[in-house]
Amino acid sequence: MTPQSPSRPLGPEAFKPVPVNTQAQEQIAAPSLTFSQDARSRLKQNKLALVSFWLLVFIGSAALLSLWFSPANPNTQHLAYTHLPPKWGNLNVPFFNGYRDGVDLYARSGVPRGTYFFLGTDYLGRDLLARILVGTRVSLFIALLATFFDLTIGVFYGLIAGWRGGRTDTIMQRLIEIISSVPNLIVVILMLLVFKPGLTSIILAIAMTGWVTMARLVRAETLQLKNQEFILAARTLGETSRRIAVKHLLPNLSSTIIIQTMFTIPSAIFFEAFLSYIGIGLPAPTASLGTLLADGQKVLQLYPSELVFPAIIIVVLMLAFNLLADGLRDAFDPRSSR
Amino acid sequence: MVQPTDSPILSVENLRVDFATFAGPVHAIRDVSFTLNKGETLAIVGESGSGKSVTVRSIMGLLANNARIVAGRIMFQDADILKNTKRQLNALRGNDIAMIFQDPMTSLDPTMPIGKQVAEPLRLHTSISEKKALAEAVRVLQLVGIQDAAERLKDYPHQFSGGQRQRIVIAMAIITQPQILLADEPTTALDVTIQAQIIHLLKEIQATTGTSIIFITHDLGVVAGIADRVAVMYAGKIVEYGMVDEIFYNPQHPYTWGLLEAMPTLTTSADRLYTIPGTPPDLLAPPPGDAFAPRNPFAMQIDLAEQPPFFPVSPTHAAATWLLHPAAPQVTLPPEIARRRQIWAARFAH
Amino acid sequence: MTNDSVTTSAKRPVLVQVDHLVQTFNPGKKDEVKAVQDISFSIYQGETLGLVGESGSGKTTTGRSLIRLYQPTGGDVLFAGQNIARLRTGSPAMRDFRRKVQMIFQDPYASLNPRMKVKDIIAEGIDIHHLAASAADRDNRVNALLAQVGLNQDHANRYPHEFSGGQRQRIGIARALAVEPEFIIADEPISALDVSIQAQVVNLLKDIQAKQGLTYLFIAHDLAMVKYISDRIAVMHNGRLVELASADEVYNHPLHPYTKSLLSAIPIPDPAIERQRTPLVYDPREAEDNRPRQLVAVYPEHYVWAAADEVAAYQAAAVRQHREER
């Protein structure tokens, strides 16, 4: 706080008054960014989330395209070609050249020239890549389904419980507690009493329990939002509950919903894989990442690649969804990060 | 009774702090210097975004992760706090320098009994036994006016009212007998009647312990009640500083005028309140001249072009406004400021 | 009933009349809160009634009960002669009430939906009550409202987070004005704003009132600002009205000990006055002796919450204070 004198002598014109421009005061110079544009620019700064996103896009489109352009029929058995190592054409990449322990297994099994199994074959001689693509498709289908139940049952349930409050909320909360107190696994096992093992019981189990976390989150957020002054303002203007839900609640819940969906997906994928792995999920011969892992595990010591490839896919899927979810959370709510 | 002195205990020199944002660096503190004397209360007044909180947080090393200290020194006990290691800083925090935050609801741990919380700084910085620390906690809790302190040591924060909680926060801050208390809007969240009690309490503590206080507030009424000296901040800079009477009766900066004029007193009956037009500048791109110029009814050409230096008014009082330049024209003072200047003049007439 | 004198002494037309309003949350449960305990007062057409009290005094609850954000537990609220405490949600009378009474909120950061553009925020009421004939009419109305609160058309397409606190508060005011209300409840509209911005908002509210003949209930804890903007002031404490009189009367001749303590605690931006200040401490237990108390006129147009045997003392004090002034 040392006083000082001006650097140079000043002429009288320097001290001419300047009128205050009140209108200019209210100018906002910054370009107008909407909330989602803002979030997008933040997401773009998160390299890990961005890589995850494109990885998921790649895996997803590969799995989808394999519906039409499959490298082989995933269920065709070639009992002569069992346990072949991977072979990438004639590229002669180590581990991917069809040799195991110095022996060219493709030649020994009499595989015709021009036939390659990019990730090898399993114990029935089925093309592993084709099976992994089918398994991924199953996983992504489960992901889609879990998202669907999250967005319908979960969001709706949470909105009603949170908005109505009082006794409605209490009853709905008790119901949720009952539902979530029964482990998923038991639900599926009980369903085996009625249905054959397969997609139906998995879907039903997810439909019954998968949306519970979403409902809880949406309820908690709605409870907070409904006392926010902009909701009160809408009420004093005479807005109906339904319009408040659509116009004010859902847009403000959107980030929570998106983020929670991103966390539901990996757990649903894992749930299916786990059921198939222990043998109460998808029945043979349908491929699923879980059954592939189970098959691969049986021959782990002899042919580790049959476990490693499906394992890599499931790890990548789970990791990518989780990292993307983290990235989205930081993008939508910058305060939560660090 | 301990009187304020002229010997500095803390000095902030040419401090500059930037915040990294997506739009670029926000220059939150733009060359701030001041000293805190032993035993005095320095009030830093300013609006939200003026940088007053950031200033004290840099002293405590409590800046957000995206903050960067660009330049400056903060000298305490012949050493630059900003050069301290984490360990040195921790030894300082809560021991030599303690802080009181705005919200008594969130500055106490709801899961810890208050006795333990109040004693914690003592346990952290000395090797005192738990029993002795708790006994000391009882003593300071009594000092801040918590009745039956000994019986209430095991109570949790939620069992106290807002005003009592702020007293507990203050007890926690003074238990180590710090040389400096940093109070960041400690009464803003409280009701006026409680606010009056807390201010009274802080004055009492200062009179008995001789601690120096930096008191941050936006309320000039509170400043008038507690401060020995005042620094007025605007847009990351100090624009005027001086003894409390100098600021209130002989203000020089048009921003100080605006603040004093905009506050209605109980006797204001004018048809319209005086307002400072517009809003504070965006510190992403601070204006080249005086940051207040666009809102200043007394602005001159030079204000737009060049930042005003501090012009001394008295040995203790200076203001950064070109109006104090010898070549600047005389301006007609706003009525409230003219009234205050009269009080000032009358004092020297005696 | 002394309360009747509160409402019948009015010579000016009464717009809002509150009779024995009671607002209890979670009645009968362990966490029961008696936020408002039997208050009665009226608000005259075109005036500003200031409602002051500290946090937890029930002032915000009173405002929200008056605008039917809460369903009153007991008592009546008459707006333009109609008892709105009994209106059914969704009824035509309720829709009408929702248009005629508006609220300005405290927190400029929470009172605007962050996902909506400013023009849609302001037009919300226009849309609900179908006040605009066409999309162009809607835009015109929004622009006129923006101009009225000192903002301009360029702001219409922006989002709330781009505005400063004072600008946001003005957007909130424009939203309330959009439905052309008669009565506005301002719930601490300036307490979250900086000093230099508070005056802007208060001036704006005064200008609008002068132009459109609005009636205000101005809820605040900043007594200096309330004194400035209000014609009459009601002081609340622990869910009860303890004093009601004209603004000057409350400030110059406070009678209730709580009002006195509140006034003594206001910080004044004048060091000389501050040095001499002695805050008075009010002990709420003074009123907890279970004696029946009510709002009694102890001086013309000056009401104090008092027990029967305290009235004489208050009357004497009022007379003495007024004589001393002269």
UniProtKB/TrEMBL annotation, chain C:
SMART domains named among the record's database cross-references: AAA (SM00382)
GO molecular function, one term: ATP binding
InterPro entries: AAA+_ATPase, ABC_transp_ATP-bind, ABC_transporter-like_ATP-bd, ABC_transporter-like_CS, Oligopep_ABC_C, P-loop_NTPase
Keyword Transport: yes
Keywords: ATP-binding, Nucleotide-binding, Peptide transport, Protein transport, Transport
GO cellular component annotations of the record: plasma membrane
Source superkingdom: Bacteria
CDD domains for this protein: ABC_NikE_OppD_transporters (cd03257)
Family membership noted in the UniProt record: Belongs to the ABC transporter superfamily.
PANTHER family given in the database record: D,D-DIPEPTIDE TRANSPORT ATP-BINDING PROTEIN DDPF-RELATED, TRANSPORT ATP-BINDING PROTEIN
Protein name, per record: OppF
Source organism of this protein record: Schleiferilactobacillus shenzhenensis LY-73
